[in-house]
Amino acid sequence: MPEEVQKRFDEIHTTPMGIDRIKRNLTLTCQDSAVVDWCKAKIAAPESKFVLKGKNWYITSGSAVFTLNKYSMTLITAKKR
To answer: Which string of DSSP letters, residue by residue, matches 10-70?
Structure first.
């Protein structure tokens, strides 16, 4: 995990619309309150790959790709790859 992300890892969050989008795209059945923790666990996995493009980090972990805004640490979306 890049140092920039690691230092601000606890700041990772999303919006209510982000929760809906992530759950729909990844077909998650967990409670809304667990979505960010689930995503953070995937992002923190040792096999995760990080690519910075402009203002966003694209993080590939398992069968998902997460989009994380580098400035606000907002999880914008997650998609199956």
So the answer is: GG-B--HHHHHHHHHHHT--S-GGGHHHHHHHHHTSTT-EEEEETTEEEEEETTEEEEEET
- Please, which pLDDT band fits residue 55 given cuts at 50, 70 and 90? very high
**Residue 75, SS3 per DSSP:** strand
Q: Does the predicted TM-score (pTM) go above 0.70?
A: yes
**In whole angstroms, what is the distance from residue 61 CA to residue 42 CA?**
6
Q: How confident is the model at residue 19 (pLDDT cuts 50, 70, 90)?
A: very high
Q: Per-domain residue ranges for the chain? A: 3-80
β-strands 49-53, 56-61 pairing: antiparallel
Tell me 9's DSSP state: G
